[in-house]
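A further point concerns the way the authors explain their paired sequence and structure data. For illustration, here is how one protein appears when written out as sequence plus structure tokens:
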Amino acid sequence: MSYSQSKAVVAALLIAGVALPAHAAMTVGTFLSRANALREQGPMAFMSPELPALKAEAKAATNQLKAERAARAAAGKPPIACVPEGESVGIMDMLDGLNELPASYQKRPLKDGYARVLANLYPCGRG
């Protein structure tokens, strides 16, 4: 494909409303392998350049979940998880929850793994 053909394809996708992500979302499996390797470093992990990268991925996934929650609420759809007011999940609990997910989640985006962990911890409709 020539350069001009590539530009035409990109233009067609943009016109059609298809978003081209700046980078593909990190999968649960990739995040876990990198986070678990970092975890094994103990206190030395705080010095690793990998830590800020993983924090950024976690923050991006969290922001995506917040946007999705708002969109679901605006559409009148029920939330995926019902986290009590003032509650939050610590990073170690989130990592433990991600590690407990079925193997089928390994190739899903991190956001989906986070959503499943939250739904497991805080299911809606508890009485």
Observations:
- Residues 23-121 form one domain.
- The radius of gyration is 18 Å.
